[in-house]
Amino acid sequence: MADLGKVLVTGSSVAQEHLDHLARAGFQVHPVPGLLNEAELGSELASCTAYLLGGDEFASRAVLARATSLKVVGFLGVGYQSFIDAGAAAELGIVVTNTPGTLTNSVAEFTVGLLLAQRRQIPSYAADYRAGRSGTEDKQHDLAGHRLGIIGLGAIGTRVAEISVLGLATETAYYSRTRKPEVEERLGIVYKDLPSLLSWAENLVIMVPDTPETRGMIGLPEVALLSPGGITLVNTARPSAVTPAALLQGLASGRIRTAAFDGFYGSDVPETTELLALPSSVLLVTGHIASLTHDARDAMAVRCIQSIVNVVMGEADSCIVSVCSSA
Q1: Domain CATH for 41
Q2: 314: left (phi > 0), else alpha (psi -120 to 50), else beta?
Q3: What sign does the dihedral 32-35-39-42 (CA atoms) show?
Q4: Cβ distance 60 to 92 under 8 Å?
Q5: pLDDT tops 60 at residue 327
Q6: By C-alpha distance, which of 132, 76, 141 is closest to 288?
Q7: pLDDT at residue 66 greater than cutoff 70
Q8: 6 touches 49 (CB < 8 A)
């Protein structure tokens, strides 16, 4: 069996059976489950042929420049842009792959779960019951028959629409960079421009990739368009899609009645402390766990590992997202 070199595996969600597959393929598997800082990551990658990025570290230009033997970064997920300097990787001749389609259902289910949790105030009412405060709960609203707006109709956004329309009987509209006539016809949903969608929706789900165009796409002017009666906002995309000031203003003004985020702003953001001091009935935050299921993580690992093997062996791979411009 050929020696394919050392592969660094970060994070803790790749099951041992999948790491064993890497070893059988000829790699020296080096798992490091803890979070690595830039210096540590650069040191670890200096001797690696491959890198399975399953943690929350960031592979910067400085890190990648030290990895002179590195051929491929296999990202465990879709939104690699927040974890890899893909431009630097391309310049350095390092291939980047991701795992499209493997987490679609898990993230969509979690998103709808957060929507139901906040729309019906399930977490806060459960906490009240345990604390002996049951019996004074306010009436909430169903999702069925009410207006749901989806920002971003990629694979996950489409799956959210399917669950919401076919399973929960919501009245659904969407905004996306490109219209999806087939999905509109199949599900009976309608396209609206962003301002129209914001003023129309009672519930709003954000499901856009992290790009320069989507960062801050919901700011103070957009919050001002929301219904004065207050909406339920769910963001399982990157938190940067909503500016912290806009979220704080929306919650303070009541235009956002309640919100849920999966992943949140860093401690360096001025509004973070004030936002996280709000009760979960107003703002529910989870730690970027929407895809944290056995089903999604196993599928992601299988896809990612196969891509790593393909690239190192010089074979074609359908999940390459960034390659050297001379390749």
Answers
A1: 3.40.50.720
A2: left
A3: positive
A4: no
A5: no
A6: 76
A7: yes
A8: yes
**Per-residue pLDDT tens for 303-313?**
999 999 999 99
One-letter amino acid of 310: N
Residue 219 burial (CB count, 10 A): 14
Interacting residues of 138 by C-beta distance below 8 A, sequence separation 6+ = 121
11 and 70 in a single domain? The answer is yes
Q: Which residue intervals of 242-324 are DSSP H helices?
A: 244-253, 272-276, 294-312
Q: CB of 33 within 8 A of CB of 60?
A: no
Q: pTM, whole model, 2 decimals? A: 0.86
Same domain, 29 and 63: yes
Contacts of residue 235, Cβ cutoff 8 Å, sequence gap at least 6:
205, 206, 241, 242, 259, 260, 261, 262
The Cα 58–Cα 52 span in angstroms is 12
What residues does 258 pair with on adjacent strands?
232
The answer to whether residue 47 is domain-embedded is yes
User: How high is the pLDDT of residue 79?
Assistant: 82
Residue 326 has pLDDT above 60, yes or no: no
For residue 181, what is the enclosing H or E element? Answer: helix 181-187
**Torsion (CA) 76, 80, 84, 87 in degrees, nearest 10:** 140
Residue 327, domain member (yes or no)? no
Over residues 85-97, the mean pLDDT reads: 96
Report the number of distinct structural domains present in the chain: 2
Determine, yes or no, domain membership for 64.
yes
Query: Taking 50 as the threshold, does the pLDDT of residue 325 lie above it?
Result: no
Instruction: Look up the domain containing 247 and give its range.
Output: 104-286
**Domain presence at residue 305:** yes
As a whole number, mean pLDDT of residues 86-113 equals: 96
Please check whether residues 148 and 133 belong to one and the same domain. yes
* Rounded average pLDDT over 227-231: 95
Q: Pairing between strand 72-75 and 283-286?
A: unpaired
**Tokens 């974890």, residue located:** 83
State both tokens at 304: 């990612």
